[in-house]
Amino acid sequence: MDDLREKYLTLISAAADEAALEELRVQAVGKKGEISLHMRSLGKMSPEERQVAGPALNALKDEVNSALNARKSAMADAALEERLKSEWLDVTLPGRQRPAGTIHPISQVWEEVTAIFSDMGFSVAEGPQIETDWYNFDALNMPGHHPARAEMDTFYTHRAEGDDRPPHVLRTHTSPVQIRSMEKMGAPMRIICPGRVYRADYDQTHTPMFHQVEGLALDTGISMANLKWCLEEFVKAFFEVDDVELRFRASHFPFTEPSAEVDIRCSWADGQLKVGEGDDWLEILGSGMVHPKVLAAGGIDAAKYQGFAFGMGIDRIAMLKYGIPDLRAFFDSDLRWLRHYGFAALDKPGLVSGLSR
Ligand code: 2U9
Predict the structure, then answer these.
(1) CB within 8 A of 322, min separation 6: which ones?
(2) Which numbered atom of ligand 1 lies nearest the CA of 179?
(3) How would you classify residue 350: left for phi > 0, otherwise alpha for psi between -120 and 50, otherwise beta?
(4) What's the whole-number average pLDDT of the chain?
(5) Ligand 1 pocket check for 136: Cβ under 6 Å
């Protein structure tokens, strides 16, 4: 018994790794292990012999088991010690900088315009970008072969041979949204309609998709005076000036009568636009009193209600506010160059921490 004890305790303390320990466990106390076989032979012993050998074998089994466990946890401790020596973390290192995205200038201007008109009590309306030609043209007093249809460089949807349903168009302006809103909400109402519009045109100041915001105010007793005040408030807030002079130039749109294009007083010293001062005029939007036929198309009683409407290009006013010369640049993926033109959102701390200056 003492030999067995000596043998296993020596082997256990010499074991090189956990696999060797496991082998020893099987060899000593496993089902067919050496100590287990001795225990099985207890049955063949005389009661006197068994009384001595039984407890001794049990004690030996316990001793071998605890030697195995002790050796195993010593090995684990040594391995952990080894890892701690080689693997370590400097918790005082600064964190990795993640480049944050920044809001696109068109989205920013879209939000600025929406916020300004919201303050004046306008709510936002949106509608489909693929429209029937009734909502895009007829309802806006551009029936059949009206020349304005051709001027708008409209994208038409494809119709299969023999399909004689009226064509759909990519909306050329957001005006259909106002018609849909008139049908839904009736008068009085004040809405603005920001959104994407499409025209087949591409050069320095035109892209085939661009953004408009149009506004519509319907009520009893609405006049051009209300329109003028409203646009003055908008221009002052948008260009962040205390005062500005507006010039209304008589114009023509099929959907408004009378119609006016609106210019703001400005100066262009050293290629820099200053709004509100100087001797130049800058066209920023179109406007007018809603044509009675258009009111009727939206189901509004033109004898009772009047309305003013206006429209402007979000991309265009973004170019003016932030001094961007080529509209196509808005659709490049990398906008860091905008910093050169003083686009303030790029300089807000935290917004673009990953960009190089
Ligand atoms: C309804 C009634 C009237 C919207 C208007 C303009 C004048 C206008 C242009 C500005 C630059 C389009 O982006 S642009 O090319 N828009 O000049 N838009 S009045 O009038 C409406 C709209 C809807 C029911």
Answers:
(1) 105, 338, 341, 342, 343
(2) 24
(3) left
(4) 88
(5) no
227 alpha carbon – ligand 1 mean position (Å):
13
Atom of ligand 1 nearest to the CA of 173: 12
**Segment 51-69, tens digit of pLDDT:** 888 888 888 889 889 988 9
Residue 256 near ligand 1, beta carbon < 6 Å: yes
CA 107 – CA 113 distance, rounded (Å):
10
For residue 231, give both structure tokens.
Answer: 């646009």
**In terms of Cα–Cα distance, which of 212, 213, 210, 214 is closest to 330?**
210
Contact between residue 193 and residue 174 where contact means Cβ atoms under 8 Å apart: yes
Distance 287 CA to ligand 1 centre (A): 6
Atom of ligand 1 nearest to the CA of 212: 13
Mean pLDDT for 163-182 is: 93
Choose between 157 and 194: higher pLDDT: 194
- In angstroms, rounded to a whole number, what is the distance separating the alpha carbons of residues 23 and 34? 12
CA distance 185 to 280: 41
> The whole model's pTM is what?
0.69
Contact call for residues 135 and 172 (beta carbons, < 8 A): no
Q: Residue type at 125?
A: A
- For ligand 1, say whether the CB of 295 is within 6 Å of any of its atoms: no
Amino acid identity for residue 238 in this structure? F
